[in-house]
Amino acid sequence: MKLIKKHIPLAIVMVTGVLTLVSYYVPNKLSVNYIETLSQWENIVVAFAFLLGLISLFFSHYNKISRKADGWGYSVFVFVGFLAMVLPAYLSHGKQMTDAGLTPLGWSFKFIYNALSGTMFAVLAFYIVSTAYRSFRIKSMQAFVLFVAAFILILGKVPLGQIIWDSVLGWTGQGVSDVIEWIMQVPAVAGKRGIMIGISIGAIVTSLKIIFGIEKQYMGKD
């Protein structure tokens, strides 16, 4: 049992990981075919995983409704929202527009999905403001730099801010739009690249740990 539950899965992961890694650096027809086949199987696995996740979501909300748990009314809207999008998509054959205008799917996207998305982001705006207030409390030099950069960006996005900038700092010869462009093109890009480099290094280290059997969480608790 130990061989089946532990060693064979580790061997499969290691062989697949090493072959996939080598295939990206070997310009050969076999490696190209291997990557294409692996991508097809990946799409199949993702499709089944999405289906299992959808079934799990439905059972979870169904149990919540049957038990009349707290907030069970919101679970009803999960089924209503699902049917409101899937049925029009089936009737419209996945098309949002025709020569005659909007299809049922297009109507659902425009008047249901877009409206709900706008409402969600409008509500999130209050949480963003609250988080920004806590983040901009100046307790260090780094927080001060963050506050100054954010203040300039906010100032340059409204006409009143541009008027204030021109009246107070117009003698510098630099418009607020020029300063914003410099912030977005130099410090912001440097920060993004640093974050991406850190993410890439973390992904490489995690992948190597999985390939060589150091990380085994995907095998479960046993």
Quick rundown:
The chain is an all-alpha fold. The protein is 78% helix and 2% strand. It contains eight helices and two strands.
3D structure, described in words:
It is a single chain. By secondary structure, the chain is mainly α. The protein has four domains: about 1-60; about 70-125; about 135-185, no CATH class; about 190-220, no CATH class. The chain has helices at about 1-25, 30-65, 70-90, 105-135, 140-155, 160-170, 175-185, 185-210, and strands at about 95-100, 100. Strands 1-2 form a two-stranded antiparallel ribbon. A hairpin with a 2-residue loop joins strand 1 and strand 2. Helix 3 (about 70-90) crosses helix 4 (about 105-135) and helix 7 runs parallel beside helix 8 (about 185-210).
What pattern of helices and strands is seen along the backbone? HHHEEHHHHH
Task: Write down the overall mean pLDDT.
Answer: 83
Count the domains.
Answer: 4
**Spatial order of the strands in the main sheet?**
1-2
Task: Describe the largest sheet.
Answer: 2 strands, antiparallel
How helix-rich are the residues, as a percent range? over 70%
End-to-end Cα distance = 12 Å
Q: Can you tell me the residue ranges where pLDDT is under 50 for at least 5 consecutive residues? A: none
How many whole angstroms does the radius of gyration measure? 26 Å
Number of helices: 8
Number of strands: 2
Which structural class do the helices and strands define?
mainly alpha
The oligomeric state of the chains shown is single chain
Per DSSP, what share of the residues sits in E-state strands of 2 or more residues?
under 5%
Given the C-alpha coordinates, what overall shape results? extended
